[in-house]
């Protein structure tokens, strides 16, 4: 993977969207001129930019030509307008949802990492828990939302819990794979000097697992957004998911689209924040960006 | 001049007394149990003199790598026992008497050559920093000729350079015994010659006891004082050969008749016995 700028992030982005975030992409290690970087970025981006603008235009003009009711579908200009008119309500809802996502994600990271470490460090924990964790993945966790609402009320708690339940797994799984991806020869080296299991874990396994962990975190952050929206659908007093549902019952399609776009932008922003964190950590552990997770 | 040599002789004798070498008695290794058990090594007796360069030479699958790991306390033997300086090998591991150079360099990709060279000593001593660690790593890197590359990351190093960092990492431990498990197996022939020369120099300088696993006859003859030739099914030692070639050895050694004699003899020893 590339070290910086948006080219690198876009390359990662596309691999994540194809559902194989842990696939390795060969990295051109040689640094390039920044002018060339911008040029190659433009070359890579313009086809999708053209398609995007075309779709928006067709949408705008098509809805006008077919004379569709704004109850059914809103024109891009309509929901842009709506975004401005209802900006205070939307900002408020965005903040509520952001808080849910961030808290949920934070707990997911803690739960996911602690589980992965325990599974890797203690064989009996793996024997006891791993099959159950995998089994738990069969449960359609989205369907748990109403139960959590029933148990924990309409506040922040059920949202955070649902997000953790949905998002911890890719973190645990990816980190566990990374913790076990340690070179056999390195293990021999550690044994030849009588190193303890804890030393192997902290000195070798955890740093080795970082690229894998980040692949998991990237999946988890998008799942956290889904979790927040679903939880709000099931019962909430505010938030973007709540607004989408509220707007749909009112047949306020422009508001629905406005909220939908904000959720998407929020997800995108969080995803890039993850990439930024990864980039910063790669200064200390260059293998994160050099070899990617594979 | 003479006096210095004599003093060196004395100080070496003192070290000889401290270190009586490695003794293996009746060492065997089995994997699995019952009918499916595989015997890798059987009834193996071995003595390794201190400060000597000893090679374990044999075909693939003869258990030479397993034997190395047993001698170094990395794996345990199913039968028999190994002592180092008269103490059990496990105790020798705790006293940090071994430095391993594995088949692959296995460097930590996020650490520079220098940090990699320090790494084993840091873990072994359970200290992050210390003057001795810095000094030992710097000296070891110098010995393998990598002082210039100290700040490079592993992906910037060639295969031969990475393997040299791996050797420096073991040397920085300042072990009594270096365990080398086919360290140059993955290198091209030219780099391999260069590495052998360098290793001969390093050995002459440090006089560590070296146990060197290889399946290359010329490599074994060039480097060793003693070669233990191993046979298969089960793994055992079929011959112990002392190599009486003058030191310091240079690449010209390869062309001497004595070298050729050793090589020919060993090739016959290792020839697969084809049953017609």
Quaternary structure classification: heterodimer
Radius of gyration of chain A: 22 Å
Query: Given the C-alpha coordinates, what overall shape of chain A results?
Result: flat
Query: What is the distance, rounded to the nearest whole angstrom, between the alpha carbons of the first and last residues of chain A?
Result: 12 Å
Total number of strands of chain A: 0
Topology-level CATH name of the largest domain in chain B? Rossmann fold
pLDDT under 50 segments of chain B (min length 5)? Answer: 10-17
Domain unit count of chain A: 2
Element-level helix/strand string of chain A: HHHHHHHHHHHH
Describe what this molecule looks like in 3D.
- The complex is a heterodimer of chains A (294) and B (276).
- Chain A folds into 2 domains: 1-15 and 28-68, no CATH class; 72-291, MetI-like fold, CATH 1.10.3720.
- Chain A starts with a helix and ends with a helix.
- By secondary structure, chain A is an all-alpha fold.
- In chain A, helix 4 packs across helix 11, helix 6 (145-152) packs across helix 7 and helix 10 (240-249) packs antiparallel against helix 11 (253-281).
- The longest helix of chain A is centred in the C-terminal third of the chain and has 38 residues, at 197-234.
- Chain A has 12 helices and no strands.
- Helix content of chain A is 78%, strand content 0%.
- Helix content of chain B is 39%, strand content 22%.
- In chain B, a hairpin with a 6-residue loop joins strand 1 (22-31) and strand 2.
- Residues 10-17 of chain B have low confidence and may be disordered.
- Chain B has 9 helices and 10 strands.
- Chain B has 2 domains: 22-97 and 175-271, P-loop containing nucleotide triphosphate hydrolases (Rossmann fold, 3-Layer(aba) Sandwich), CATH 3.40.50; 105-173, no CATH class.
- Chain B has 276 residues and is an alpha/beta fold.
- Classes of the chains: A mainly alpha (294), B alpha/beta (276).
- The A-B interface holds A 29, 183, 185-186, 188-195, 199, 203-204, 207, 284-287, 290-291 and B 69, 72-74, 93-94, 96, 98-100, 102-104, 106, 108-110, 119-120, 123-124, 126, 153, 155, 173, 179.
């Amino acid at each position: 993977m590339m070290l910086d700028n948006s080219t690198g992030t876009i390359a990662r982005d596309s691999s994540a969207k194809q559902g194989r975030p842990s696939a390795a992409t060969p990295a051109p290690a040689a640094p390039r001129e920044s002018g060339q970087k911008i040029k190659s970025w433009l070359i890579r981006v313009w086809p999708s930019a053209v398609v995007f603008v075309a779709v928006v235009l067709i949408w705008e003009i098509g809805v006008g030509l077919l004379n569709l009711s704004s109850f059914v579908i809103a024109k891009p200009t309509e929901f842009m307008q709506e975004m401005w008119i209802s900006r205070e309500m939307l900002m408020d809802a965005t903040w509520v949802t952001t808080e849910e996502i961030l808290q949920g994600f934070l707990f997911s990271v803690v739960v996911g990492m602690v589980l992965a470490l325990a599974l890797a460090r203690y064989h009996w924990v793996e024997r006891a828990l791993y099959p159950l964790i995998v089994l738990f993945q069969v449960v359609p966790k989205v369907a748990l939302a109403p139960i959590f609402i029933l148990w924990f009320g309409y506040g922040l708690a059920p949202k955070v819990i649902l997000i953790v339940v949905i998002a911890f797994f890719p973190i645990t799984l990816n980190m566990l794979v990374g913790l076990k991806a340690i070179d056999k020869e390195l293990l021999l080296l550690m044994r030849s000097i009588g190193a303890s299991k804890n030393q192997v874990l902290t000195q070798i396994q955890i740093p080795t697992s970082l690229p894998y962990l980040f692949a998991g975190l990237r999946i988890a952050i998008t799942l956290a957004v889904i979790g927040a929206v679903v939880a709000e659908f099931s019962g909430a007093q505010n938030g973007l998911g709540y607004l989408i549902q509220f707007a749909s019952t009112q047949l306020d399609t422009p508001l629905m689209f406005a909220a939908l776009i904000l959720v998407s932008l929020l997800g995108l922003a969080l995803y890039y924040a993850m990439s930024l964190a990864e980039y910063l950590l790669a200064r200390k552990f260059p293998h994160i960006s050099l070899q990617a997770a594979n | 001049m003479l006096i210095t040599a004599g003093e060196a002789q004395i100080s070496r004798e003192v070290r000889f007394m401290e270190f009586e070498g490695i003794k293996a008695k009746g060492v065997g290794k089995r994997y699995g149990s019952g009918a499916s058990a595989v015997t890798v090594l059987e009834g193996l007796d071995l003595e390794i003199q201190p400060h000597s360069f000893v090679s374990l030479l044999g075909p693939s699958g003869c258990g030479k790598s397993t034997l190395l790991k047993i001698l170094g306390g990395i794996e345990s033997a199913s039968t028999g026992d190994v002592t180092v300086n008269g103490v059990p090998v496990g105790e020798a591991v705790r006293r940090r008497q071994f430095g391993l150079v594995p088949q692959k360099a296995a460097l930590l990709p996020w650490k520079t050559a220098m940090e990699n060279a320090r790494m084993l000593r840091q873990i072994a001593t359970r200290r992050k920093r210390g003057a001795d660690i810095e000094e030992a790593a710097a000296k070891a890197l110098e010995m393998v000729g990598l002082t210039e590359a100290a700040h490079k990351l592993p992906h910037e190093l060639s295969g031969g350079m990475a393997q040299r960092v791996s050797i420096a990492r073991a040397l920085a431990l300042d072990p009594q015994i270096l365990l080398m498990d086919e360290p140059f197996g993955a290198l091209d022939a030219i780099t391999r010659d260069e590495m052998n020369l360098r290793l001969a120099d390093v050995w002459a300088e440090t006089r560590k006891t070296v146990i060197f696993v290889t399946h290359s006859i010329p490599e074994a003859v060039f480097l060793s004082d003693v070669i233990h030739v191993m046979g298969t099914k089960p793994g055992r030692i079929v011959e112990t050969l002392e190599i009486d070639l003058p030191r310091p050895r240079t690449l010209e050694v390869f062309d001497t008749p004595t070298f050729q004699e050793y090589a020919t003899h060993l090739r016959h020893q290792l020839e697969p016995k084809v049953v017609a």
